[in-house]
Amino acid sequence: MKQEISLRTYQAGDPSKICYFQYKLYERQYQFNGLYEQEMLRGMAEIYDDLEGNQMWIAELDGKIVGDIAVIKKGVDRAQLRWFGVDMDVQGQGLGNKLLTEAIHFCREKGYAHLFLGTLDILKPARHLYAKFGFHLVESELYNEWDTSREMYHEVWECELK
């Protein structure tokens, strides 16, 4: 019998778990170094800056975190999509679509007209999903702090939610 993936909003303690989940995911999938975890830890506190305007969703399977996504308010009608990740063992099953749909629905409920995110050019499946949801590339710059063995680019993508 196949277990169903559940989706819930975050609780106290979850942001720390998501930092670890994200670090292990990107270490396993892309061999990122510990500076990626540092970046996660530095930014994660933002979730608590605006309890009404920010939100994070956690996907679980049998009590284990298998995905996450967050929205951070960045102005009256602007927000940032952050910490989007899906465990390699469940990729390709629609969880990314479900998480992104939930985040965009939240943004529309809050009246955010502009949504942006940062990603890397090597994250091909995520970039494909962003394009499917109406995001477009607006910036790209060389960035390899998380893996100095290859050239990769940090990208900014935006979407209008009108």
Percent in strands = 25-35%
Measured as a percent range, the helix fraction is 25-40%
- The assigned structural class equals alpha+beta
Shape: globular
What separation lies between the terminal Cα atoms? Answer: 41 Å
Mean pLDDT: 92
- What's the helix count? 4
Largest sheet: 7 strands, mixed
Number of strands: 7
Strand order of the largest sheet: 1-2-3-4-5-7-6
- Uncertain runs are none
Order of helices and strands: EHHEEEHEHEE
What is the radius of gyration?
Answer: 15 Å
Layout of secondary structure:
Layout: E1 6-9, H1 14-30, H2 34-44, E2 55-61, E3 64-73, E4 78-86, H3 95-110, E5 114-120, H4 124-132, E6 136-142, E7 153-160
Parallel strand pairs: 4-5
Antiparallel strand pairs: 1-2, 2-3, 3-4, 5-7, 6-7
Helix pairs in contact: 1-2
Describe what this molecule looks like in 3D.
It is built from four helices and seven strands. The chain has 162 residues and is of the alpha+beta class. The protein has a seven-stranded mixed sheet. α1 packs antiparallel against α2. The termini are far apart.
